[in-house]
Amino acid sequence: MHYIIILLLSAHQLSAQPQPTTLSDVLQLAQNQSVAAKRAITQQRTNIWSYRSFLAQFKPQLSLDGSLPNFTRSYVQVTQPDGNIRFEPVSYNNSILNLSLSQTIAPTGGTIFVQKQLQRFDNFIQNNTLYNGIPFGIGLSQPLFQFNPMRWDRKIQPLLFAEGNQQLIESLEQVSLNATNLYFDLLVAQVNLQIAETNRANNDTLYRIALHKLDMGKISQNDLLQLQLSVLNAEKDLASARQTAAVASLRLKTFVGYRDDAAGQVRALELAIPNQIPVLVVDVKRAIDEAVANRAAAIGFRRRLFEAERDLEKARKNNGLNATLTAGYGLSNQGPNLIDVYIRPQNREYVSLQFTLPIMTWGRARALVETAKANRELAQQTVEQDKLTFEQEIFTQVTLLQMLNQQVTLTAKADQIGQARYQIAQDRFKLSDLSVTDLGIATQEKDRARRDAILALRDYWQAYYTLRLLTLYDFDTNLKIKVMDNGK
């Protein structure tokens, strides 16, 4: 019964120990709590509302405008029949209200509108009131031979919106990549700290053994001093490793928004080594196809070409004949009473054509057009170069990931061999079968193999999340990365 209680207590103590923080835990924290992730989500909301604002301008717009009241009391000059000027007092209120419903015509760039208008004039000196109004009116304002920004906006704004949507996913993947880098910075620091602690303990033990061996005449004074120096170097390395690990831990906590407990006590982050890596066979063409389908940059290629074409058309049309046709029809009336406006109103028609025709510009119009042509060619060339760079970057990352997969396997085996060889070397030294120099070499090789294994894991996971960022595709699950996908 006594042994059962001891086993239960031991099991409880083990279960109470905090579990190591995994890479998946850190990425989840980063995407849920980090300032970088919140900033990306805020930018996405801005993108959504900007696009909604763009769509709203193509829907009917109802507006009420006017001047109420519009009071004036002053002296105004009045020209007399004989040519003299007299200053007469005036005191009046001239209020006006206009209710209009307008609709833009995107293909032509014009605007059609329906309106109602009411005007009241009060002359306080003569003590009379007049009403004027438009019970109904319809009109059209149509630019002719002019650049139509609405037609181009309908091509470009949806691409900008799609870019913004994909940019959110890219930003969150960038958060994952940055968190992965900081994770391995801390993991490498913790492994170095573990190595430093182990070396300090081992060197201290070996130094104590060497003292006994010196008394027995089995070791020289020089070897003893070398072991003593190793103890001092191990102490120095341990202090440096602790400081590096503390800084790396603070950087990771700050980035992912890791909070200490309610009492304000600082909680240490003990990281797990992500040894289980996905073995991926990635086809380069598939990776490029996914990047073209998913990346904001690929959408931006089309958008930049459209913008160059738009600027060329704007340069051509803004330097030629520009005209605006304005026409309207409706009913209007006036009278001393409000009801007079609506009794047998008269027809109201108007039409006007305003135009501007540049005659002599001294080559300015042609220069603007040629500049726009050159900018279009430059945009086309730049986009082609960016496409090549885009594909080359993905090709490089795919081949790098495949190479690093082999590196992880090789360095893991080297780590196992280095640890086993060091244990043998340590046992042989205790039996006086190995020199201090050979023991030091075995220690260095053991440490280097351990670090190389961790660095190989770091390089692999960095390459893995970089490929996700470049393609917005998870080749482990064969799924497109969505906004709520938090990675591994």
Q: Could you name the CATH topology of the largest domain?
A: Outer membrane efflux proteins (OEP)
Number of strands: 9
* CATH structural architecture of the largest domain: Up-down Bundle
CATH class of the largest domain: Mainly Alpha
Please name the fourth-level CATH homologous superfamily of the largest domain. Answer: Outer membrane efflux proteins (OEP)
Low-confidence stretches: 1-16
What is the overall shape? elongated
Mean pLDDT: 86
Radius of gyration: 40 Å
**Helicity, as a percent range:** 55-70%
Largest sheet, strands/sense/barrel: 7 strands, antiparallel
The rounded distance between the terminal residues' Cα atoms is 44 Å
Task: Summarize the helices and strands and which ones pair or pack.
Elements lengths: L1 H15 L6 H11 L1 H22 L4 E7 L3 E9 L5 E21 L4 E14 L4 E17 L4 H67 L5 H36 L27 H11 L1 H22 L4 E14 L10 E11 L7 H67 L5 H36 L1 E2 L4 E2 L8
Antiparallel strand pairs: 1-3, 2-3, 3-4, 4-5, 5-6, 6-7, 8-9
